Every structure is written in C-alpha cells, then in structure tokens.
Amino acid sequence: MLDFNTVYIMAYRQIKRFFRARSRVIGSILNPVMWLIFFGLGWSSLFKAPMAKIMFYGLDYMSYLAPGVLMMTIFMSSFIGGVTVIWDKEFGYLKEVLVAPVSRTASIIGRALGETLTAMLQGVAILIAVLLIAPLLNPLGAPLALAVGLLVALSFTSMGITIASRMKSMEGFHMLVNLIMLPLVFLSGAIYPIDNMPLWMKGIAYVNPLTYGVDLARWLLTGVSQMDPVFDLTLLLVLTAVMIAIASYAFNKATIE
Amino acid sequence: MPREVVVAEGLTKVFDGFKAVDEVSFRVVEGEVFGFLGPNGAGKTTTINMLITLMKPTKGEAWINGYSVLKEPDKVRRSIGVVFQDSTVDRELTGWENMWIHGVTYKVPRDVLKRKIVDLLGFVELDKYAKTQVRNYSGGMVRRLEIARALLHEPEVLFLDEPTLGLDPQTRAKIWEYILELKRRTGMTIFLTTHYMDEAERLCDRVAIIDHGKILVVGSPEELKRMIGRDVVYVKAFDERSAKMLIGEVARRGLALSYASPSSNVVSFTVEDAHSFIPEVFEVSSRLGVHILEVKYSKPTLNDVFLHLTGRELRDESGSWMDFMRARMRRGFRRG
Ligand SMILES: Nc1ncnc2c1ncn2[C@@H]1O[C@H](COP(=O)(O)OP(=O)(O)O)[C@@H](O)[C@H]1O
Ligand SMILES: [Mg+2]
Description:
heterodimer; A: 257 residues; mainly alpha; 12 helices; 78% helix; elongated; B: 336 residues; alpha/beta; Rossmann fold; 2 domains; six-stranded mixed β-sheet; four-stranded antiparallel β-sheet; 41% helix; disordered C terminus; binds adenosine-5'-diphosphate; binds magnesium ion
C-alpha cells in the first residue's frame, strides 16, 4: 500500500521550494515565452511561402511550434526538477530522507508528483500565452493537452531522479543538462519535423518519449499528427509507468557510500 | 537491570580492503550519555552510519531499542533521532517548514506537532527565527535546529555526530547546555561522538576511546583518568637524546607508572604522586648530567589517557582556530 502521508509531504516540500526560488519561477515562464516570440515569430515570417506550409503539415509555423513549446517547457522543468535530487545529496538533505522510517518508493513518488505539479503550473501559463499568440489553436484541446503534459512531466521527473540517484557529485550536472536536455528537445519534433532527419537522428527521436507527447499535444491543439494518437497515448502511458518504476528502483538503491 | 538501548557486537566496516571500523562492541543503557572519543578518521561516523541503518556492516550486528539494524531497519529508524556531522536541513525552507516536514514524515499528529514545534524551537531559542529561511542561519543556529528536529518524534535514543564541530566557543557552550538540559529533563539516551576531550568529559557518563577503528577502553571519564595514575608530570628536556636518557633511567628505577612522548624532547609521565616524583626526576637528571628545561604537572585529562594509550596526542581542545576555519571553509565551498 502506498504511503500517501509521505507522498503528500514530499510533494509539499518540492512545491514550497519551487515558490521560494523566485528566479526559477520567473525564468521558467520567461524562457518558453522567449522561444515563442523570438524563435516562433522570427521563423514564421520566413515560412510564409506555401511550400513552408507543406513542410509543417499544412500548419502555419506558429501553430506548429506552440504545442512543441508547451511540451518543451513541461519537459525541461520536470527533468531539472528530478535532477535536483543531486542537490539533496550535496547539501545533505538526502540523509534526512534516507534515515526516515518511510518507504522510499513513496518519498520518490511524492517528490516526482511535487515537481510534476510545478511543471504543470508553468504549462498552464505557457498554454495561455500560446493560445493568445497562435489563435488558430483549438482551445477545447487545451485541458487534454495539459493531461498529456502531466504524463510527460511524470516520466521526465523520474528520468531526472534516476540519473541523479546514480551521480556521485554535482560536477557533471551542467554537462548532463546540455547533453541530454537539448538533444531531446531537438529530436522530438517540437520545433521542426523529424521526417527528413538523417536516419540516426530519427532513431533517437523515435525512442524519445517526448516525441509522442509532442505529437499527441499537437493533435489535440491543431488536429494534425504524424502518428496515430491512440498509439502515442499508449506508448506514453507505458513509458511513464516504466520510468517511475526505474526511478523508484534507483532511489531505493541510493546509499550514502 | 537497566534496559540496553544500543548494543553493538563486533561491528566491522571495510572500505576497499581498509578497515574503518574493526570489531567494535559496546552497550548503552537507558538514560545514559555515551560518547565515542577519537581523532579524525577514527571511525566514529562510520560506526554511527551502521547503527542508524545507512550503511551495512561488513561484519557484526547491532540492536537499537531491541531491534536488529540488519533485519528490522524500519523499526530502528522509528526509534532514533539523528544529528549528522554535516548539516542535513533544507536551506531554502524556513526553520518551521523543516520541522513541519520532519514531523509529518514521522506521522506526529498535526495538532500535537504544531505545539511541539513551538516548544522545541523555544527550547533551542530559535522561536524568533522560525519563519526565517535556513540559508540565513548561522552554523550554530543550523545545529540547534537539527537538534530540535531530531527530538520532534520523541526518539528512544538520540545520535549526535560531533555536535559542536566548527562552532565558536559561546555557541558550543550553548549546545552543551541544551544537551545537559535534555538529559536532566527527559532522561534521553544519547550516543555522541567527538574529538574534543573537554566535550566528552563534560557531557558523557561513559566514554569509549576509539582509534584506527578500534575501541581502546570504555569507562566513565573519572575511571579512565584514574586508570593511568593520579598525576601527570610533563618534563621538557634539552633535546631528544636527553629525553630518551631520562625515560630510560626513570623506567629502570620504576619511578613512574607509564610514559609517553608527545614530541621529541617532551616526556609525559603518569605517577602516583607528583610531589615525590618531581624531586626524584631532578635527582635522576643531575645524576645523568641531563639538562631539564621545564617541568609541570596536572591531574590527568582524557587527552593524557589517549596519549598514554596510543603514544599520540588527541587533537587540541575544542574551539581551536584551525577547526573553526576548516568547518567554515567546508561550508563556504558547499554553498558555492
Ligand atoms: N565511504 C567511504 N569510502 C571509503 N572510505 C571511507 C568512507 N567513509 C569513511 N571512510 C574512511 O574510513 C575512516 C573512518 O572515517 P570516519 O568514520 O568518517 O571517521 P571519523 O568520523 O571518526 O572522523 C577514514 O579513514 C575515512 O577516510
Ligand atoms: Mg566523523
């Protein structure tokens, strides 16, 4: 039986910490808005030609990009949130968690949930911005797109936790962020389609869970998708469950040695 | 028979072939303050880590509150409060929030918890800073918060790993006061480690002296000091050769109980009576034609006990400038 008390209090901690770090709150919302404005508007003025529309499956570039930026925001925020376990190692708090008489699975699920909720908050903010900037989107799909965001957030928080549980120090942190986060964004179809990529890039794109989240969110917001939405959803659900299980395993194994 | 709250039998920890803790056995009874006294690297923290279920012993077994650390880690965890050597608070949160999260995690009922947080923050005199983010606390305040937090769930036994390491003298005195007050008021069983002999002497009912992972002796500070003799006489000779000659002759005549040499030309003798030994040592030196620069004597301290057991000095007394700087630097690096 899952210990909800522990799930709750660990989620509470992450949410408290998030709001305490004001720069993180502002940055996390500002960052995607910058993408939308400077990247989105910049390229859409270039992609006015009819040929361009074909490239983006009949969508104008802004509408193509908007669901991608939404998922990207949720992805980045949740992944970094998960990786902050390494901070707890560095600043000692991990010991306080490990010595407590509670299930580690519960505490890691609570933590993942807390980070997920903060990522969703940013998702809502971005979604509102997106609906304003790209008016062709279908607002009715928005709540469901957020639900997809929830799955994406849960799976990438878990991935972050898994990686952090295995890391010894914070040294590799920035490299990790650049080496994992950026490629996963570029290879997800969030900012350009994956169809014409070199084969090896395509390969990575297809094992990247974010690809399916982006595709599904795009379908919900624009009606256009590259894969069968049911397939997207099934895969995303399975991947999320697997990621949580791996994270919980890795955290159960975490020691101070 | 008082209840045994901590029992260790043959605890051993090997890191890559290096024995950090070597066949350590001891018992702590209810209401006792029991201390591990030993220099840096003696194996104190490693022992605590095994007792509190954070490390698996390579060999041996321990029981806390009757529960096996190997087989019933959850029950052990429920029985203990821990203040780690390095701080384990969440610096982004306030003191109150740190307490709240701990209390809820340990399933203290919410109404009781609210009251206890107020009581305990009052006890360590942090009530005014309850709503301040811990990142703005001083090192001493963090330590006090951690003590309060460890008491929140009313543990059977409190573990304190070097509770005053790197704190300034006033703060150290404060922390000692809290620990003694805690003992007086609640009869809490406490296991603490330290490398400060004055701290061990002041706080502990019984002390185990530990070096290179081994317990050398266990006893009350009084017993340990009595064990080596009534008085300690330090003799500073002109050079190493004269010190050696003095030792040889004193030993041959059986004038002292034991001797040790903390530095090349200094000898520390333990004796039954300094008043009769000092004239004798002068007589010996003039007979040998050896020059004595300085003589002083005192009652034995735990430092002398350590010196006569190991031939080396324990670290300086608490509050040394070096310790303070070292801890400062460590904290500074961590923040960056
Ligand atoms: N995780 C570890 N891996 C390898 N060696 C360790 C580890 N932890 C401690 N040691 C070594 O074990 C010895 C005892 O360390 P420790 O228990 O921290 O000593 P103390 O707390 O008495 O200063 C030291 O020599 C230390 O370097
Ligand atoms: Mg230590």
